[in-house]
Design brief:
Layout: H1 2-20, E1 25-33, E2 39-43, E3 54-59, H2 62-65, E4 68-74, H3 80-94, H4 96-106, H5 116-134, H6 141-163, H7 172-179, H8 181-200, E5 214-215, E6 245-250, E7 257-262, E8 264-265, E9 273-278, E10 295-300, E11 311-314, E12 318-324, H9 330-336, H10 345-355, H11 359-366, E13 376-382, E14 397-403, E15 406-411, H12 413-419, E16 421-424, H13 431-436, H14 439-446, H15 456-464, H16 471-478, E17 528-529, E18 531-536, H17 537-540, E19 545-549, E20 559-560, E21 577-578, E22 582-587, E23 593-599
Helix pairs in contact: 3-6, 5-6, 6-10, 10-11
Length: 605
C-alpha cells in the first residue's frame, strides 16, 4: 500500500509540475578589463549569446525533482581568463539564493579548526607563486588550468555578491572553503594532530622518507615502518567518513559498461545542482589547442565548481568517479600534509578532467603536487577504448588511490574483464596503500568492516552485480539497502542486530538512537546516501546520465525532515520529504537540460 500511495502521489505531482514548473533563468555576460586590471562585467541581451564570454541556463526543479540543473557555456572569442571569470560570474548570479542556503547549512563544518586560516594562506601563497612563475612558460598546461579554475572561483564570488543583499555577502575565502570541503576531511584532523603534538611538547615520531610515488604495479616496497594508529581518538573510525559507493559493471558478453556512484554525506548537504560546463579554454596560455575535456557533466552543489561526490562525464571520453578512503595512520597526517608543494585535490581533479585524453593520463596528471587531502579511490573509465561485444582493451579502467605522500595508480582492466565488475566502497584495494593507511590495525580492532574482501558492501556488490541485466537493474543495485531483512545487513555486535550502514546506499540515519553500536562509523548518525547517478556506453554517446536525489527509499522509508530526529540540523531551503524519481538528463545546445522521468519514486518501498 505504501508503494502504491507514493507512486500515485508522485504521478499527481508530476502532472501538476508540467503546468507550474518555473521558467529557466538565463544570463549572458561579456568581460572587459581596464589597464589597471579592473574587471567590468556587462550583461548581454537575449539573442546575443554568440557575443558573450559566458552564458547560463538555470532550471529550478529542486522542489519537484530534488535537483536544479545548470548549464554554463563560454565564448571561444574571449580570452581564457575572461571566459573563466564570466563562467563563474554567471553561475554565482543565477544560483545565489541556493548558495546562501547551502552556506548557512554547512558553514560551521568549514570553520572547525583555528589552524585553517594560516594553512590556507600559506598554500595560497605557494600556488599563486607557481602560477605567476609559470606565466613565463607558456607551455605549462597544469598551472594554466589551475589559474583558470581560480579565476572561475573569483567570478563565482563576484556574481553571487552582485545579486545578494548586504546581509548575505560572502567572501572569496568562503567560496574557497566550500570547494575545499572534501580536502578538509583530512586537513582538519591533520592540523588538530599537529597542534596536539606542538602543545604536548614532543615531535611526531618519524615515519621515514615519505615520497611522491605513482605506482604502476602492486606490491612495491616503500620501506615503510609500522603505521601509527591511535585508538584513543574517539573519532578515528569517522576518518574518511565512509563517503560513497561506486560500481563499474561490464556485461559478461561485453555488450555494455555501466558506471554508477552514490554520494554519502551529512543530510544537511541535500541541496543539489546537476551541471554542464562547456568551456572553450586552451591547453596553455598561448596554445591554439582547446582542452580535451571541454564539456563536463557532473553532480554538484551550490557554490561548487567541482562535483565533490565525485561523478563526471567528460567529452574526452572519460567517466570519473570516486569513493573516499580512510587515513588511520597518524604519521601520514604528521609528515605528508604541508601547505608548500601541494595543490588541493579539488583543483588537481579539475585539471586532470580538462587535460587528460585517456584514463592512464588522467591518473598521471592528477598525481602531480599531491596534497594528501580528500584521499580517495578513483575509478577512471575510458569509453574511447570500449567497443560493444569486444573484449575490454587494456587501459579501459584505471584505479588511483591517494594518501599523504603516496599515490598508487594501476590498470585494473583485467580484474574488470575477469570478474565483470569493480566496486569501490571506501577501502583501498592496493596492498601497499591498504597497509600504509593503517587498515590492518583497524581490522584487528574493529573486524571485517575494514577489509577489502569481507566488509558488508564487498559481499553485497559481489552478490548483487550478477543481477544486472540492463540500466534499470543497475539503478536498483546502486540504491540497494534492505538491512533489516538481508542477512548481509546483520551486525553481530549491534543492538538491534542489523545496521543501516550495511547497504550499497547508506542509511545511517535509520540506526536507532538508543541502540548499541561497536564504533562510531556504524552508529546512529547524520550519514546517508544523498543520491545516485548512472551512465553507460549507450548513454555516454549522447552525454546523458540518469540521476536520483535523496537517501535511498527503494526498501526503506523516504527521508523526511519532519519525522527525523536529525531535524535539529540546519536544512535551510530543503524540501520536507525526499521521494523523488529517477530523471534522465540530456543536454542540447544552449537550451539547458532535457529532463525525462525514468522511473517512479521509491520503487520497491
Amino acid at each position: 500500500m505504501a508503494a502504491m500511495a507514493h507512486v500515485a502521489s508522485f504521478l499527481l505531482l508530476w502532472s501538476l509540475l508540467v503546468c507550474i514548473a518555473a521558467e529557466p533563468l538565463r544570463l549572458s555576460v561579456s568581460i572587459s578589463r581596464t589597464e589597471s586590471g579592473e574587471i567590468k562585467v556587462s550583461e548581454v541581451p537575449n539573442g546575443g549569446e554568440d557575443h558573450a564570454c559566458a552564458s547560463g541556463v538555470y532550471q529550478r526543479e529542486y522542489t519537484n525533482l530534488g535537483w536544479n540543473f545548470l548549464q554554463i557555456t563560454t565564448g571561444a572569442s574571449c580570452p581564457d581568463p575572461d571566459q573563466a571569470y564570466a563562467a563563474g560570474f554567471v553561475e554565482g548570479a543565477l544560483t545565489w539564493e541556493m548558495t546562501w542556503d547551502h552556506w548557512q547549512n554547512t558553514k560551521d563544518a568549514l570553520s572547525a579548526s583555528d589552524e585553517l586560516p594560516a594553512f590556507l594562506a600559506a598554500n595560497d601563497k605557494y600556488v599563486s607563486g607557481e602560477i605567476a612563475a609559470e606565466h613565463l612558460n607558456s607551455s605549462e598546461a597544469f598551472w594554466w588550468q589551475v589559474s583558470l579554475v581560480l579565476e572561475q572561483l573569483k567570478g563565482l564570488a563576484a556574481g553571487y555578491n552582485s545579486y545578494a543583499s548586504t546581509s548575505k555577502k560572502l567572501t572569496l575565502d568562503d567560496f574557497l572553503r566550500m570547494n575545499s570541503d572534501g580536502d578538509f576531511y583530512d586537513l582538519i584532523p591533520a592540523l588538530k594532530l599537529k597542534k596536539k603534538d606542538s602543545v604536548g611538547g614532543h615531535l611526531a615520531r618519524k615515519f621515514g622518507a615519505l615520497r611522491q610515488t605513482v605506482e604502476r604495479t602492486l606490491g612495491i616496497n616503500t620501506g615503510r615502518t609500522e603505521p601509527n594508529v591511535n585508538f584513543d581518538d574517539e573519532d578515528l573510525t569517522l576518518r574518511g567518513q565512509q563517503k560513497c559507493s561506486a560500481l563499474v559493471k561490464v556485461m559478461p558478453d561485453f555488450s555494455e559498461i555501466f558506471v554508477a556512484q552514490a554520494a554519502f554525506s551529512g543530510l544537511e548537504e541535500l541541496l543539489r545542482i546537476y551541471k554542464l560546463y562547456d568551456f572553450a579554454f586552451h591547453t596553455t596560455a598561448k596554445s591554439a589547442d582547446v582542452i580535451p575535456g571541454r564539456r563536463s557533466a557532473f553532480s554538484s552543489y551550490p557554490a561548487h565548481v567541482i562535483s565533490g561526490d565525485d561523478f563526471y562525464l567528460i567529452s574526452s571520453g572519460i567517466v570519473a568517479v570516486e569513493t573516499t578512503i580512510g587515513t588511520f595512520n597518524d604519521d601520514l597526517y604528521r609528515n605528508g600534509i604541508t601547505p608548500e608543494g601541494s595543490v588541493f585535490e579539488w583543483l588537481r581533479n579539475m585539471v586532470a578532467n580538462r587535460l587528460a585524453t585517456s584514463a592512464e593520463q588522467w591518473t598521471s596528471i592528477f598525481s602531480q603536487h599531491n596534497s594528501g587531502t580528500y584521499n580517495n579511490q578513483w575509478l577512471i573509465v575510458d569509453f574511447n577504448l570500449f567497443e560493444p561485444g569486444e573484449p575490454l582493451k587494456d587501459g579501459t579502467l584505471y584505479v588511483l588511490e591517494q594518501y599523504p605522500g603516496y599515490i598508487a595508480a594501476y590498470d585494473a582492466t583485467e580484474e574488470l574483464r575477469t570478474a565483470n565488475y569493480f566496486a569501490s566502497y571506501n577501502t583501498p584495494h592496493n596492498k601497499t596503500a591498504y597497509e600504509l593507511a593503517g587498515y590492518p590495525a583497524m581490522v584487528t580492532k574493529f573486524g571485517d568492516f575494514y577489509t577489502v574482501e569481507n566488509s558488508p558492501r564487498a559481499h553485497l556488490f559481489a552478490r548483487e552485480h550478477v543481477k544486472v541485466t540492463d540500466i534499470d537493474s543497475f539503478k536498483h543495485t546502486v540504491r540497494y539497502n534492505d538491512f533489516k531483512n538481508d542477512p548481509l545487513g546483520r551486525c553481530a555486535n549491534c543492538t538491534p542486530p542489523y545496521n543501516g550502514e550495511f547497504g550499497i546506499s547508506s542509511r545511517g540515519d535509520l540506526n536507532v538512537a538508543n541502540g548499541s553500536y561497536p564504533f562510531k562509523a556504524v552508529s546512529h548518525r547524520d550519514h546517508a546516501s544523498l543520491d545516485a547517478k548512472v551512465t553507460s556506453g549507450a548513454l555516454f554517446k549522447s552525454f546523458s546520465s540518469i540521476v536520483v536525489a535523496g537517501p535511498t527509499c527503494d526498501q526503506q522509508p523516504p527521508f523526511d525532515w519532519s519525522t527525523s530526529d536529525f531535524n535539529y540540523l540546519p536544512h535551510q531551503g530543503h524540501v520536507t520529504e525526499y521521494a523523488f524519481p529517477w530523471v534522465k538528463v540530456d543536454w542540447e545546445g544552449l537550451r539547458g537540460a532535457t529532463l525525462t522521468i525514468n522511473s517512479t519514486a521509491c520503487s520497491a518501498y
